[in-house]
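step 4 of 6: structure.
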Amino acid sequence: MATFGGRWTREKLEILERYLKAYARVMKNQPFHTIYIDAFAGTGTWQPNSGYLPEDYQDYKELLKGSAALALDIRDRAFDRLVFVEQDKDRSAELRALAAEHPKRHVDVIAEDANQVLPRLCQRMTPLDRAVVFLDPYATQVAWATVEAIAKTQKIDCWILFPLMAITRMMPRASAPDPSLEPRLNRVFGGSEHWKEIYHEKRQLSYFDKGPEFERDPGSKLIAASYRLRLESVFLRVAPTRRTFENSMNSSIFELFFAASNPVGSDTAIEIADHILRNW
Ligand SMILES: C[S@@+](CC[C@H](N)C(=O)[O-])C[C@H]1O[C@@H](n2cnc3c(N)ncnc32)[C@H](O)[C@@H]1O
């Protein structure tokens, strides 16, 4: 069992579940082999333990279904195959136990780094395969190369939870990021130019001649906008509606994106995902 999140975790999972149900309806009479890939799958259950508001207190002891269990529950047109990727050995063991409760389903549990597994899975997709991928990391674990591999398939709809707070903390407002953090930022954005463009040279000169100094505008909006542009550069379409999750201090912690890659299905996929996000 994983213990994390509060109200926003519940919202994130409800959005995913609504999408999976709609996807199942759309795929019902289609000839495709449908796959659900949970790249950061957790354990299949979660218990709210932090950041809860008074009205959430009821949830405290409640054990809720995580993304993997919710995907297994999709019935209208059940996924033909489910792939749960979870690096942690204990958590992947819990996922195997969950899979064992569904002996008739085709479930693969892979206890490896999602950034190694996903490009491999993407490459092996056949022409009739169609997939939904859920990228739900704790922080900055999703490498841009993984996102690019997903987009390239032209067969995958993808929900991506972008770690806005973690990235914002790595990018100070009044100075450029610490050089030790640059490799991690480059890995998330797929190159330094995409986060460096958020900075501009300081207008006010320093008293000391230290060469150009950098700063950026306050807040995290430009950071989220820059990542959206990155997604738009590789996916066919990205859902226009923003969904930013905030913690109990009203600080933005994650931005949820939806992106579609299939030339035939992307308009429908975007329409459904955007409808869910807009009416939240
Ligand atoms: C936010 S939790 C996932 C929650 C899950 N999606 C749910 O709704 O129940 C993130 C999970 O990713 C796992 N993880 C972290 N880095 C990983 C990596 N590089 N590859 C695969 N799993 C990873 C963590 O062990 C953790 O269980």
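step 5 of 6: annotate
 - The mean pLDDT is 92.
 - The radius of gyration is 20 Å.
step 6 of 6: archive
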